[in-house]
Amino acid sequence: MTSQFPVPLSGAAASTLLWADETSIETRALEQLRRVSTLPWVHGVRVMPDVHVGKGATVGSVIAMRDAVCPAAVGVDIGCGMAAVRTDLTADDLPDDLGPLRSAIEAKVPVGFRGHRDPVNTDRMLAGGGWKPFWDRFGDLHSGVRQLDIRAHKQMGTLGGGNHFIEICLADPDDNGVEAVWIMLHSGSRNIGKELAERHMAIAAKLPHNAGLSDRDLAVFVSGTPEMDSYRRDLDWAQEYAARNRRVMLALVCQAVRESFAARRVVFDEPISCHHNYVATEQVDGLELLVTRKGAIRAGSGDLGLIPGSMGTGSYVVRGLGSAASFYSASHGAGRRMSRTKARHMFTAADLAAQTRGVESRKDAGVVDEIPAAYKDIDEVIAAQTDLVEVVAHLRQVVCVKG
């Protein structure tokens, strides 16, 4: 089936293409997109079907810039993204009561603002190498965060709150009726990424070349300046922190699963991992540009990606189709249909329990703003981007851990 998208955004300055119906996008988000398109450094903007209002720039957008980066467009959760791994467990292996499995995961991975009591010993787990040179670079970061080194160590391998999650999922049945068990998680660079982002956003806002901008949050750094060099150094480190954080968490959850199924040896496939709040230097339209994906994943030809829904609606494993029109991108999730504040006013814990029936998860007032009804329909979001990705697997969660 041929996609009806993309369509151009009316009133935009730089080329701005939508994988969504303009009339379905909230007015404030459209205004943000148009403001971003007027920045003199912008080559083009691509808008994913999960688009919604963000700080400075919309969540669900891809901004290709010439020799410039907008730190607010990247956001405060630098390097936020997804990781997942398929296991050789099946639905038949899962117990009727999944509460103990959820508790086992929560015992391994701190959630919310918490960190580990002692830093995780990454030398004793399957979490990749290069740890010493990575941590040695901490001393080169912005001077305002250097007192946070102990906290950054203790938050390595932790979840955070908000829309971050750890899930045990079941894939749709294969040809033999087997439902494979997957582990999926969503998190980023924790407090250290936020602290770095806020400091650099404050620096950018005071630079003379940003004085005339209509929105202070659209302040940029430009190439060839010490401010840009400092930001890129800290940005790259925070993006690596986020990727390593997911790697450590995934290893911890795999430990919890192994221990929960101690009667057998659980086998795990190669993990899938992808950022969805980040900057990369890429070739776009024959030019070398700085591409910011704010709530979007790279979907180059063959790239595996993860597009989650909400606590009760399932997620997708996808493979990129390499669409040059989208700047080789796809959506990062379902996208919010309403703010957290509105969701808390509109729904109750009872509503949350009803909408997450069948999922072993928190069902209290503290996570009502994560209720499935606060998000767009993930199936509609996937259907809007059939020219960007193909579906590899559809997953439905049976355990969801939230901060």
Task: Give a verbal description of the structure.
This protein is of the alpha+beta class. The protein has 10 helices and 18 strands. It has helices at residues 27-37, 71-74, 99-108, 131-136, 149-155, 190-205, 226-260, 340-346, 349-355, 378-383, and strands at residues 7-8, 15-18, 42-52, 59-65, 68-69, 81-90, 165-171, 180-187, 221-222, 272-275, 277-284, 287-294, 296-298, 304-308, 315-320, 329-331, 360-361, 389-402. Strands 6, 7, 8, 10, 14, 15, 17 and 18 form an 8-stranded mixed sheet that branches. Strands 1-2-3-4-12-11 form a 6-stranded mixed sheet, covered by helices on one side. The protein has a two-stranded antiparallel ribbon with strand order 5-9. Helix 3 (99-108) packs across helix 7 (226-260) and helix 6 runs antiparallel to helix 7. The radius of gyration is 21 Å and the shape is globular.
